[in-house]
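Design request, tokens follow.
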């Protein structure tokens, strides 16, 4: 189970981040919020980096990232060596990206999912543990690709 998270959002994900943050605090998860802190326009690549760096430094176990679709901020996060980010709008994928991909970032779209579903996605993601085994060899291949390119 994941007990600490770093949050990041652009303006398209700001409101959803705030809703998820409240849920996380009620759940007792340690939260570091890297913004954005208003609905003013900001660029999603800029907002992906600080929470992902916090994960790489070991200050949070995972990043929860939000933009309008969840897609742009997931693309930015996946450019960062050591980050495995998944953009999800269904609970099955949010759970299995932890079980099989050892994902350390979950991305959601504020214009795609509502707050109720987002909290279910987050719970599924936080509660699932990487299964290792044959999946560890596959995740190692992701790292090989990252190192090659
Ligand atoms: C911002 O308008 C929007 O493009 C951004 O939040 C995101 O959806 C990009 O993928």
């Amino acid at each position: 189970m994941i007990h600490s998270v770093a949050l990041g959002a652009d303006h398209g994900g700001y409101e959803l981040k705030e809703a998820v943050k409240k849920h996380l605090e009620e759940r007792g998860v340690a939260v570091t919020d890297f913004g954005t802190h208003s609905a003013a326009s900001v660029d999603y690549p800029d907002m992906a980096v600080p929470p992902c760096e916090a994960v790489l430094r070991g200050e949070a176990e995972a990043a929860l990232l939000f933009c309008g679709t969840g897609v742009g901020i997931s693309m930015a996060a996946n450019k960062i060596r050591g980050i495995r980010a998944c953009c999800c709008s269904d609970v099955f994928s949010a759970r299995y990206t932890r079980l099989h991909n050892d994902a350390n970032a979950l991305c959601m779209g504020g214009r795609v999912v509502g707050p109720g579903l987002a909290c279910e996605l987050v719970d599924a993601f936080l509660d699932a543990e990487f299964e290792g085994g044959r999946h560890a060899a596959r995740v190692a291949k992701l790292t090989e690709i990252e190192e090659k390119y």
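Comment from the thread starter after seeing the answer: thanks! The radius of gyration is 14 Å.
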